[in-house]
Amino acid sequence: MKRIALLWHVVKGDARVLWHALRQPGRPVWLVPATALLALYALDPFNIAMPVAGVVDDGIIVPLVLHLIVRCLPAHLRQPRPRQARA
């Protein structure tokens, strides 16, 4: 259970960094197509045909590719955005 919680923490952090990088005007050209392909892979209809294999596959491949995309970002985009204070 601790490993799943750690994986979720890493994926959540990578998703935040990716979301921030996608909104920047100086993002790499390859970032939008790579993110779109990853989203299509995660939502592909093969998961419906074989639900168990699809969930296991998405639970392994999608977080790894997400982390790889974040690792390939330039250093200035990999920095997590500071959280805004709530009023």
TrEMBL record:
Domain of life: Bacteria
Name of the molecule in the record: DUF1232 domain-containing protein
Organism for this UniProt entry: Paraburkholderia ferrariae
Lineage, top ranks: Bacteria, Pseudomonadati, Pseudomonadota, Betaproteobacteria, Burkholderiales
